[in-house]
Amino acid sequence: MQVFKGILLTGGVGNDSNIYIIDNEMIVDAGTGAFFPVIKENLENSGFNLKGIKTIINTHCHFDHTGGDRKFRDLCKAKIMIHKSDSKALETGKGTIADLFNEVPKTTTIDKALKGGEKIQTKNFSWEVISTPGHTPGSVCLYEPKKRILISGDTLFADGIGRTDLPGGSHKALKDSLKKLSQMKIDYLFPGHGMPKMSGVDFYIKQTLAKLK
Predict the structure, then answer these.
(1) Percent of the chain beyond pLDDT 90?
(2) Is the torsion defined by CA of 6, 7, 11, 17 positive or negative?
(3) What domains are there in the chain, each with its CATH number?
(4) Residue pair 128/117 in contact by the 8 Å Cβ criterion
C-alpha cells in the first residue's frame, strides 16, 4: 500500500512490524522474516526491484522489527543500520525478545551504528535520524522536515505509545522523547504497527503527552 508518494507500506501481518520501502532504495524495519517469501513475491509481482534496496534501518532491536534483516540483506546486499545503544542486542541476539515470539534469537552483524542526527538521502526524501529512547535504549524515529513525515517505530502509534515494561524500557525516557517530537512539525505519522495517521499529528502528540504521568 502506498502511504505517500515514494513510500510503500507492507508487512504488518501476524507479529510482523510494518515495513516501509522508501524510493525503492531503503527499508525501515524488516519484520520477523516469517512472511518474507510472500512479501518478496508480492512486491516483485507489483514491479518492484528489491535488489535496488541499499539500506536497511531498524527503528530498534526487537525481533518483530529485525528478524527479517538477514533475509533482506542476503537478497539486496544492503547495509544494516541501528542505533549504537541497540547494536549489541542485535549483534548478540540477547535483548531482541525473540523468545516472546517463540523464536530463537538471531545474531545479525550491523554495518553502521547510528548516533542520532545523521542525514540519510533517498531520491525524493531527506531523512534525519532522531534518537528517541524509551521503548528501547536505542529506539529511533526518521523525520522528513520538508514533507513533515515521521516514521516512528514503536515510540508512537496512531492510538498510543510504545511499551516501556520490556528490558531496557524507560517511561521517563519515552516521555522525554515525545517532548522532543512535540517540538517538530509533523503532518504524517507512519508507526511501527497499525495504520498511519495522516492528519492532526502535532496536536495528537501534545495530547498524548498531556495524558502521561
Answers:
(1) 93
(2) positive
(3) 2-211 (3.60.15.10)
(4) yes
